[in-house]
Design a protein that fits this description.
Structural class: alpha/beta
Distance between the termini: 10 Å
Strand order of the largest sheet: 3-4-2-1-5-6
Shape: globular
Order of helices and strands: EHHEHEHEHHEEHH
CATH superfamily: Decaprenyl diphosphate synthase-like
Number of domains: 1
Mean pLDDT: 95
CATH topology: Undecaprenyl pyrophosphate synthetase
CATH architecture: 3-Layer(aba) Sandwich
Low-confidence stretches: none
Largest sheet: 6 strands, parallel
Number of strands: 6
CATH class: Alpha Beta
Bound molecules: 3-methylbut-3-enyl trihydrogen diphosphate, magnesium ion
Radius of gyration: 19 Å
Length: 240
Amino acid sequence: MKHIPHHVAIVMDGNGRWATKRFLPRVAGHKKGVDALRACVRHCGDIGVGVLTVFAFSSENWNRPADEVSGLMELLAVALAREVPKLQAEGVRIHFVGDRARLSEKVRNGLAQAEALTATNTRLVFNICFNYGGRWDIAQAAAKLAAQGREITEEALAGAMALAHVPDPDLVIRTGGEQRISNFLLWQAAYSELYFTDKLWPEFDAAAIDAAIADYSRRERRFGRTSEQVAPKPSSRKVA
Ligand code: IPE
Ligand code: IPE
Ligand code: MG
C-alpha cells in the first residue's frame, strides 16, 4: 500500500501549450484543464487524499492578454455553476483562496455560494487558489496582525494566512515541465516534497496522480533531522 499524502497541492501548468500544439486558442486548453481538474478532484477523493489545493490563477496572470484573462474569469463562473452541485453531492468542501477584491461581482457571489453550500462537507477539502500569490498571502497575514496590534511570530503569521484551515502541503506537483514555484505557496511549502512532470495539465490523469504519489512514497522526509533519526528500525520495517 502506498503512503497517501494528506495534502496535495498542484500548479496546473501547460494548458496554453496543450492548445497551441493542436492549433486551438489558448482558452480551449483552459477548458480542457477544467475537465482534468474535475477528474483529479474525484480521484483524490477516491484514494483518500484529505486536502487538494490547486493554483488556478496567479496574481501575475493579470498580465496576460485581455481576452485570455476574461476567458479565464468566464470559465471560473461557468465551472462553478456546473460543477458545484456535483461536488456537493460528492462531499467536497470548497474554499476559495486569494484576493477577491479585483474579481467581478458575479464571480465573487459564485465563490461565496459554493463555500456556503459545501461548508459542512468532510470527504475532501478543495482549495482553489484564484488571484492568489504567495507574497500577497504573507503580506496580508502580516497586515492583519499589525492591524490587531499583535506580535508577528511564526505561529501568528501561519494562523493569519489564507490556508490556515489546513496543514501544510505534503506534496506539491507542477505539471508542464517548468521547475519553479511561480509565487505559489511560499510559506506553506517550506517542507513539502516537490514533484515536477513534463505532462501538460490537460493530460494529467488518474494514472499520473498515482505516479506522483508513488514517487512521493519513496521520499524520506527528514525535517532537518538525520536519516538515522527518522528511518524506521529494521525490526519494524515492513517486508515488501
Ligand atoms: C496554466 O496553463 C493555467 C494558468 C496559468 C491559468 P498556462 O496557460 O500557463 O499554459 P502554458 O504554460 O502557456 O502552456
Ligand atoms: C503558474 O503558471 C500559475 C498557475 C498555474 C495558475 P504560469 O504559467 O502563470 O507560471 P509562469 O509565469 O510560467 O512562471
Ligand atoms: Mg504556464
